[in-house]
Each structure stands twice: as C-alpha cells, then as structure tokens.
C-alpha cells in the first residue's frame, strides 16, 4: 500500500529562512519525497497535523494549495494501485506521480539514484566507488544524456579520454566496468531497451598487474628493522601483523571485533568477497593484539576512533585514509632498508604467498590460504568439519622462516 503525507523538510533551509514542504510517499518502509514548490517558516508548521497552521489569510491560502495538491496525488495513487496492485518499487511510484517516463532519465540521474540505493543497502564502499567514478568521468564528458546516447563510438571516445588523462589499463577498466554495471541496472529496470546495449560490441580491456612481492631475505630485513619513532613502530607492527595473518586485508583488520576471536583463532568474513576465513593466532599476533587493544565499542584493534566507526556511511573513507598514512610510513621503512618494491599493505598479502612458493608449498594450498578457492565448509556456523592444520603449519613455517 502506498502512503502519502505532507512533510516539513528540516534538512534544507532556504536563504529566506523558510523550509520546503514536500509530499513523502512510503512503500514497504521505503520513502521518496515529491517537491511541492512551496515553503514556510518552521513556526507556522503543525507537526502533529502535518499541515500549515491557520494563523493568517496567507497561510490559509497556502494550506489550501497543499490540500488541493494532496487530493490530486491521492487520485493518481488510487489509479496506480488499481493498475499495479502489488507494487513495491517506491521510485517507480514517484516517477509515475511526477509524470516522468523511463526514457526521460539521464544517465547521471539514474547513477545518483543507484548511489543512494547502495547506501540504503549498507553497501557504502560500493556507493562511494560509484560516486567517485561518476565525478571523475564527468570531468571528461557530460552524463546529462539519456542511456540511448551511449553507443560504441561514445564508449570508444570515453576510453580514449581516460587513457589521455593518464589512467592505466586496469584503472580504465574499473571506470568502464562501473559504467557498464549502471547500464545493466538501467536495462533491468526498463529505462533503456536491451536491444540498444552497447557492451556487446565494446569490450573492456583488462591489464595484468605486475607482481608486488618481497623475497624471504627482504622480509627478514623488514622484520629485523628497529623503528626510531612511534609512527614507524606502528607501521612496522601492522606490516608484521598483516604478514603473520596470511596477508589479511587492512579493512578487515580495522572492523574486526573481539567476537571474531574464537578458540585461539580469528574467524571472520572478508569484507570484499564475504568468504569465511579462520586463521590461527600465533604468539607474535597475540602479542600485537594485546599491545594495540581498542577501547572503541567492541573493536579488536585500535585503528578507528569511536566517531569514525559509528559513521557507517563514510567508514570506507576513514579506513582509506588510515591506509594512506600507514603506507606512507611503510614506504619510509622500505627506503631505509633499500628495498626496491615500495612497501604497502597490499605487498604483504602477496609476499606471504610468494614466500610460501619459495618454501615449496603447492599452489593449491597457497590458493586456499589466500581465499582464491573455497577454504572451508560451514555447517550451522561452526568450523568443526574442516581441518585447517595444513594451512596453519604452512603459515607457522613461513613466519618462522622470516623471523
């Protein structure tokens, strides 16, 4: 059922001190606002009645205009419910009430709606990625165009512009794949016909990333390094921790909670792939955890502040900033040690795998350790059915080899 309610929008205050009056439509708990083009001062709005207070002739006229608009919208809603009795798409309802046809959507409008949807689904990293890529692409071309305008020639020109802007093949691929994802959603929502799909002919090129790894000897040099200040020490500790946890992703470390510690292991789902990991806590890892305990809510490590961790919408940005600072100090350590490969949190993941290979372990076991193949089968939330001893022994061997 579709609900309609006049609302005083406190979020946006105009220069004259008034706030917009909008109609809020609700479908299955999801909401959208429809502008009325009207506004008033907060003191003249009755929040209990959701109406303008009748205090003057001018306010009486304003109230009548709002009521007339409401009656028209309610009539449209009844028609829509008769035609679509099982509707659950609040955006489709809004488009209908605003008399907006699918082909009137611009790519930018649809893209921004997708950003909002991802945030509502708590997929904040993906939402921020979509948002940043749209901003980058808008510097090269306009997206205030219908989807029908995107064809092979348009995509080819955009790819060329991205390369001219200095992006490598992989970065170009990320931008174009995000655009393709948005286009696919527009097709699924009948914004554009599938017969006009341009990505059948236009193929997105993928580049191969050069391996960024350290040898056993280089990793030994890193472990033997003696930091000269607290920032270098923290970076050094985190480098060792990431390596000793089989190259765990820094984002997973940042949001790991005390509940992830189970029977001497760290058990967690990787935020990027959602695969389940179970890593034995070695003595060096336990020592680090004890030294860097967090006082923020239930977090395991002292990486994020309470304000940052509570700000779920911008949490990926906060973690990204932490990574940038950490990588800055790691690079300083690498320069001091005359290591050619610029050190970063990324390097430790694949250095662990590279050293596993140097020590003679099979690619199958290394792949399982990295999560490239199914690591375990989970039944009723328990891990009793999978023997992790082989991967545990490999990790202990690798850590002992560099220590």
Which labels suit this protein?
single chain; 403 residues; mainly alpha; DNA polymerase, domain 1; hpI Integrase, Chain A; 3 domains; 3-stranded antiparallel beta sheet; 49% helix; 11% strand
How many beta-strand runs?
Answer: 8
Q: How many separate helices?
A: 15
Mean pLDDT: 87
Structural class by sheet pairing and helices = mainly alpha
Tally of individual domains = 3
What does this structure look like?
The structure is a single chain. Helix content is 49%, strand content 11%. With 403 residues, the protein is mainly α. The protein has 3 domains: 2-97, no CATH class; 102-200, DNA polymerase, domain 1, CATH 1.10.150; 216-402, hpI Integrase, Chain A, CATH 1.10.443.10. The strands form 3 sheets. It has a 3-stranded antiparallel beta sheet with strand order 1-2-3, with helices on one face. It has a 3-stranded antiparallel beta sheet with strand order 6-7-8, with no helix packed on it. Strands 4-5 form a two-stranded antiparallel sheet. A hairpin with a 6-residue loop joins strand 7 and strand 8 (276-280). Helix 3 packs antiparallel against helix 4 (124-138), helix 8 (230-244) packs across helix 13 (345-358) and helix 13 packs antiparallel against helix 14 (363-370). The longest helix has 27 residues, at 57-83. It is elongated. Mean pLDDT is 87; it is low at 374-386.
What's this entry about, in short?
The chain is mainly alpha-helical.
């Amino acid at each position: 059922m579709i609900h309609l309610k006049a609302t005083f929008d406190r979020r946006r205050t105009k220069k004259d001190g008034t706030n917009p009056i909008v109609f809020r439509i609700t479908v299955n708990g999801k909401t959208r606002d429809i502008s009325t083009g009207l506004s008033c001062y907060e003191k003249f709005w009755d929040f209990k009645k959701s109406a303008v207070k009748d205090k003057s002739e001018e306010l009486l006229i304003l109230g009548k205009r709002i009521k007339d608009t409401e009656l028209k919208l309610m009539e449209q809603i009844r028609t829509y419910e008769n035609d679509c009795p099982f509707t659950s798409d609040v955006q489709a309802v809004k488009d209908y009430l605003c008399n907006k046809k699918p082909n009137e959507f611009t790519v930018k409008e649809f893209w921004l709606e997708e950003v909002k949807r991802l945030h509502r689904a708590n997929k904040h990293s993906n939402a921020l990625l979509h948002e940043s890529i749209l901003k980058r692409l808008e510097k090269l071309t306009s997206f205030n165009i219908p989807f029908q305008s995107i064809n092979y020639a348009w995509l080819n020109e955009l790819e060329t512009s991205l390369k001219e802007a200095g992006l490598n093949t992989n970065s170009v691929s990320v931008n174009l794949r995000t655009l393709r994802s948005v286009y696919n959603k527009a097709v699924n929502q009948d914004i554009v016909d599938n017969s006009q799909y341009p990505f059948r002919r236009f193929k997105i090129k993928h580049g191969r990333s050069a391996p960024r790894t350290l040898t056993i000897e280089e990793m030994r040099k890193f472990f033997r390094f003696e930091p000269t200040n607290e920032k270098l020490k923290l970076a050094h500790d985190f480098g060792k921790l990431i390596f000793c946890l089989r190259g765990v992703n820094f984002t997973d470390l940042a949001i790991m909670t005390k509940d992830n510690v189970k029977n001497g292991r760290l058990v967690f789902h990787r935020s990027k792939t959602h695969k389940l990991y179970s890593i034995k806590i070695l003595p060096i890892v336990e020592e680090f955890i004890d030294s860097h305990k967090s006082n923020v809510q239930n977090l395991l490590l002292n990486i994020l502040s309470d304000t940052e961790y509570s700000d779920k919408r911008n949490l990926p940005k906060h973690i990204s900033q932490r990574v940038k600072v950490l990588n800055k100090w790691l690079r300083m350590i690498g320069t001091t040690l005359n290591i050619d490969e610029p050190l970063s949190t990324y390097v430790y993941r694949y250095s662990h795998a590279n050293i596993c290979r140097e020590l003679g372990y099979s690619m199958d076991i290394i792949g399982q350790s990295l999560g490239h193949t199914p690591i375990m089968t989970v039944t009723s939330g328990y891990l009793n059915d999978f023997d992790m001893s082989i991967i545990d022994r490999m990790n202990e061997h690798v850590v002992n080899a560099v220590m």
